[in-house]
Amino acid sequence: MFVRMDFDRLLAIDVHSIAFMSAGMNQSGDRGSFVSISEVAEIYGVHPTTVRRWIMEGRIEAQRVGSRLIRLDLESVYRKLGRPTPSDA
Fold first, then answer.
1. Is residue 51 situated within a structural domain?
2. Alpha-carbon separation of residue 33 from 4, 10, 40, 54, 87 (angstroms)
3. Is 61 within a domain?
């Protein structure tokens, strides 16, 4: 039995997601702020390895764009971890 996969449709979905992220928008079309692991680490005053650990533990969510690039929705990070106070960073 032969099963046909619709790779063109899958690719279109991935390209659509990447277009949102590169435009600084989240999936719902709202204007979002996507930042790097280093930027989140700087905001919270921690090492980038700590942010990577938070991602691995599921404390925060990240999106992989391409094979190496990882971006985080800053509003989502704030919802999960809370906004840092000036004395925290």
1. yes
2. 37, 25, 11, 19, 23
3. yes
- Quote the Cα angle for 78-80-86, to 5°: 40
- CATH number of the domain to which 73 belongs: 1.10.1660
| Dist. CA 4–CA 35, nearest whole Å | 37
0.70 cut: is pTM over it?
no
Domain range spanning residue 73? 33-89
pLDDT, position 86? 76
20 falls within a domain = no
> Hunting for tokens 């979905």 — which residue is that?
13
Domain assignment present for 65: yes
pLDDT tens digit sequence for 33-85: 899 999 999 999 999 999 999 999 999 999 999 899 999 999 999 999 999 88
* Closest among 6, 12, 15 to 65, alpha carbons compared: 15
Q: Which two tokens stand for residue 33?
A: 């702020």
